[in-house]
Each structure stands twice: as C-alpha cells, then as structure tokens.
Amino acid sequence: MTAPKILVFAGSAREGSLNKQLAKLAAKRIEALGGQATFIDLKAYPCPLFDEDIEAQGMPENVLKLREILADHQALLIASPEYNGFITPLLKNTLDWLSRPYGDTPGLKLFAGKWAALVAASPGGLGGIRALPLGQQLLANLSLTVLPQPLSLPKASSAFSEGGELINEAVGQRLDTLCQRLVDVLAVTHR
Ligand SMILES: Cc1cc2nc3c(=O)[nH]c(=O)nc-3n(C[C@H](O)[C@H](O)[C@H](O)COP(=O)(O)O)c2cc1C
C-alpha cells in the first residue's frame, strides 16, 4: 500500500487568505513530521452553488477533479474562517458536492473511513473558534473521524513571520501536535 496522504485546503478562496497561509504551513509541518501532504487551492476548482438540477445535467468538471483528488487521500486537514460564526459557504458547497453519489460510487463513499483535522484563522480575537464545532459536526456527518482539539488562530493578520511560520512558538507547537496526531493515526490505520 502507498503511504497515506493528507489533503490540505482552506475554506476561503481569497487571494491573501490567512487560512490558506495556515493551510500551507500545516502542509509543510505534516511533511516535516513524516507525513505526506497535498495543498490545493479551491480557487483553482470553482464549483457552482449546489443545485440538484445542475447535478442532473452531469457532474461539473471541477467536482470530478476534486473527487479524484479526494479519492487519492486518506485524511483532510481543513483551515477555514468563520463567517458570522458559521462555516463558510465555499467549504459547505465543496463538501456537499463531494458527498454526492456518482457513477458506481455511493454518496459519502469518498469520505468513509477517512480522518480529518480542523484549524481556523481570523484577524479578530476569536480566531474562528465558533465555527470549529460546526465544522467538526459536518465532517462527522460525512462519516469522517475528526480529531479533537482543533486549533484556532486569533489575530492572524500579525501571526505569521515573513517566512510563513507562526511567530508565537506555543501556537506553532499546537499546530505541530495536531499535525503529528494526524500523521500518527494514519500510520496506525493504514499499515
Ligand atoms: C461574510 C463574512 C462574515 C464574517 N464573519 C466573521 C466571524 O463571524 N468571525 C470572525 O472572526 N471573522 C469573521 N469575518 C472576517 C473573516 O474572519 C476575515 O475576513 C478573514 O480574513 C477571512 O479568512 P481568510 O483570510 O482566510 O480569507 C467575516 C468575513 C466575512 C466576509
């Protein structure tokens, strides 16, 4: 069996997204900790707002590309801002499309048996913390196993060094701990 891989993306498409920055750092840390990570930018895979009429006309090209990528990974690490205390529409829409049955693949099949970890960044003081339990619940509904103790990064506009590392060492350590847990659990479950 090939080494398990972790798919890393952000729930924001914005150029200069703090969550993309956090996601890229998480991917780098996963690699440094002995795992394999793939960072993708959802801006490169624009999908229409989910509508069963659109789906009935055929799965959009970018959904098919994302399905292929997801099928090739055994875990997700998602960095997402909160919008009004909730997960972003981009994240919900992407996960909704990926949850659909297609061809011989039943709904949720692409998520079943996989692991997930969540992180959140915000320029505000709460660090996106209110949406983390909601994101965890959504991922669990999709039949992923979600690691506890997600990381939130408040005041994220000033949290990164020029090299893209976290300036606060304790927060960097917490990110490493979460990434290490994901790497370790995959090493045990995908031997
Ligand atoms: C519609 C909307 C709602 C927002 N609601 C919240 C919120 O509830 N809590 C928060 O901390 N920031 C909120 N923000 C600010 C975002 O955290 C901020 O724009 C952040 O930089 C977005 O993440 P990104 O940098 O990864 O794009 C909101 C932004 C938008 C556009």
Can I get a quick summary?
By secondary structure, this protein is of the alpha/beta class. The chain is 38% helix and 16% strand. The strands form two sheets. Strands 1, 2, 3, 6, 7 and 8 form a six-stranded parallel β-sheet that branches.
> What spatial form do the alpha-carbon principal axes imply?
globular
CATH architecture: 3-Layer(aba) Sandwich
* Main sheet overview: 6 strands, parallel
Total helical segments: 6
Report how far apart the termini are: 8 Å
Mean pLDDT, to the nearest integer, reads: 97
Query: Quaternary arrangement of the chains shown?
Result: single chain
Please name the fourth-level CATH homologous superfamily.
Flavodoxin domain
Q: For the CA atoms, what is the radius of gyration?
A: 16 Å
Give me the secondary-structure category.
Answer: alpha/beta
Number of strands: 8
What's the level 1 CATH class?
Alpha Beta
Order of helices and strands: EHEHHEEEHEHEEH
In the CATH hierarchy, the third-tier topology is known as Rossmann fold
- Small molecules held by this entry: flavin mononucleotide
Helix content: 25-40%
